[in-house]
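FAQ: What does the model actually see?

It sees only this:
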Amino acid sequence: MKITASELRRICPDYPSERIDDDVRVFNEWAPKFGITNPLRVVHFICQLAHESGGFKYVEENLNYSAERLMQVFPKYFPDRLIAETYAHHPQMIANRVYANRMGNGDEASGDGWKYIGRGYIQLTGKDNYLAYEKSGFCNGKLTDHPEWLLKSTGRMKSAMWYWFKSGCNQLADRDDIRAITQRINGGVNGLSNRQYYYRKAKRIFLL
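And it is asked to produce this:
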């Protein structure tokens, strides 16, 4: 099935005008290849992306945190006020600290945390994920050398569709299991109520 810009706009009224037509084109071209081919799968796919991207407004992770927020969001890495204040409002430093030595990234000094921050509509994060997409056959080029490709029209939507597919989300969508899909994408159930909000809006458009 195909979607339209007007349908996406009804779900996310603030969808940036400069991106919506390209995103619809990419979705409609690639959806069959990633199995997003029935209304229920489309509903779940759109509601997850809408949450992850703030209503499709953001294509890159925002790590511009205050000291207070760093201690709340990343208590493991910022256990006290002194450390948090050193990193506060320095997104590059924050990324290099919280993403160091995991997801295929090197240590804090390597800069991998910042280089491979979350990008695209599903916030692909970490060198391992970038490399996996690079090797998938769906990414034309060496993404690990050009992470900014995920911000472009094809990259931001197609990478999300690939991650959705490889994570088995189509099968979970067929079960109408938004909680299980959220866990696959998020690693937990953060933002579940907001995902459910977008789910209800998308359902009214594509299913009712």
